[in-house]
Sugar-binding protein
Amino acid sequence: MNISIVSVLLLFLLATTPLTSNDLSTGKSATSQKSSKTDHQIREVKRAVIVPKLDGEMDDPAWKEAIWYGLDQRWLGEPYTFTDFFGRYKLVWTPEALYLLVEIKDDLLYDQNKDPLKLWWDDDCVEIFIDADNSGGGHQYSNNAFAYHVALDGNVVDLGADKKPLLYNNHVTTKRVTKGDVSIWEFEIIIYDETYKEGIVNDPLILTENQKLGFALAYNDNDGSQERENFIGSVFIPGEDKNLGWINADVFGTIVLKE
């Protein structure tokens, strides 16, 4: 049987060209459907020699060497004054966890919903966005990334794959100390990737040098209203709709773990 040169070339291309991520129905994997995130707000995070003690104080050696970053991007709400809100944060890491220090000046701490799974975003809370492989993409009802809402009482909430809120208190541990109108929050964040599933034993990631993670931070501020009045984030989000972090990890910044 005669085979033309064109046919040989076509067979070669079919054998060597990788599948694209347009359609699962053609046998392509779910992993390949991830968007290609463009890294932005790239920040290096130093490794802690001594693990910070979660006591709501800023005197750990690791914090003294870390850089302050601003929590100053208004994602929702009207303009606010320094008296109403001011926020900043620091980050360090160890192989076991990411550690976060947050200083919040808020003239009124408000927790109207005692049920942690009811309207959790309308209470004062810190929101921590984590994308373990910095891949970006949608995560609203998946574990491609997490949007941990950490309440004043320490409960940690995000939406599960069943579109219902779940407690993730084993992912994030926190200690908050408030003096006057200033609160110091310390967090230990155990990192899980997209393979995380509820109801089974999951292995957290071991963090390594030069690893990239998607990261953003925000604060929901409510001074006594039925709904939150402001949502202040750490990353600039272009366009009119800036409330995207809980849906799309493309808007997260990128942190790079360094020694």
Observations:
- Residues 5-16 form the longest helix (12 residues).
- DSSP finds two helices and 14 strands in the chain.
- The chain has one domain: 36-258.
- The CA atoms of residues 7 and 158 lie 53 Å apart.
